[in-house]
Amino acid sequence: MHDMLSWEEYDYGLVGYGPLSAGGAELAVFVTEPCIAKGHCPSFEYYRDGRLITAFSFDDLFAHPWGEEPDLLLPALTAARLVGPAADLDGSDVEVRTARAVTEFFGLPDLAYDEMAAPGGTGGHGTSASSGSSASSS
Questions:
Q1: Is the alpha carbon torsion for 111, 114, 118, 122 positive or negative?
Q2: How far apart are CA 119 and CA 12, in angstroms?
Q3: pLDDT tens digits, one per residue of 14-52
Q4: Quick one: residue 112, left, alpha or beta (phi over 0 = left, psi -120 to 50 = alpha)?
Q5: Closest to 137 in 3D by CA, of 19, 1, 17, 27
Q6: What φ, ψ does residue 21 adopt, rounded to 5°?
Q7: Please, which residues have CB within 8 angstroms of residue 65's CB and are 6 or more apart in sequence?
């Protein structure tokens, strides 16, 4: 986990996570606190062996995913009724349902969903995998 700052000078770019997953490792990244001045909104990125496999923005949920397998999470997001003809995006729980679908798909540790959803909640900050990134080795 880290403070979502790029390692590049002046922190104007996105963080380059690819090298952290080299050598067969996997890295799941929830970008929870991007810099608004940069125009980046919260997003999810999944890396394997140094390559970006799939990513999407929480702002425009799965409208324009990117990576080598952009549709990798489509079945999980469809089952959670976040995309597709049965999508239910009217509630205030869309971000929590999205995070839950992703964590279940990848078998990641549970996030602090109650803290994320509560008014004035911490967004799960301070829990083991709630902000920043969660990594596992395969």
A1: negative
A2: 30
A3: 677 888 899 999 999 988 765 555 566 778 999 999 999
A4: beta
A5: 27
A6: -110, 15
A7: 54, 55, 56, 71, 73
Only one residue has tokens 């003809």, namely 85
Q: What is the pLDDT of residue 9?
A: 56
Q: Is-contact 55 44, C-beta < 8 A? A: yes
pLDDT value at position 12? 56
Q: Give the span between the Cα atoms of 111 and 103, in whole angstroms.
A: 8
Q: Which amino acid makes up residue 2?
A: H
Six-digit token string for 84:
């597709």
Distance of alpha carbon 97 from alpha carbon 89, whole angstroms: 10
Query: Alpha-carbon distance 74 to 68, whole Å?
Result: 14
Whole-angstrom CA distances from 93 to 34, 113, 116, 119 are 20, 10, 9, 12
